[in-house]
Specification:
Elements: H1 4-11, E1 32-33, E2 38-39, H2 40-48
């Protein structure tokens, strides 16, 4: 879980280039999927629970 101060710091950035994308659910900055607005861990958890429509676990 990301610190609340880190999320607050992102809002106060002077230039738009400096803003870092963060997961909407947990606040994680790394492994971010723009399409979902979530980190890789949250995407996986939600996909396995069936909360993301159209996403299924792959097998080959």
């Amino acid at each position: 879980m990301a610190k609340k101060c880190m999320a607050y710091r992102e809002e106060r950035r002077k230039f738009d280039v400096q803003v870092r994308n963060r997961c909407k659910r947990c606040g994680r900055a790394r492994g971010y999927y723009r399409r979902f607005g979530l980190c890789r861990i949250c995407v996986r958890e939600m996909a396995l629970q069936g909360q993301i429509p159209g996403m299924v676990k792959s097998s080959w």
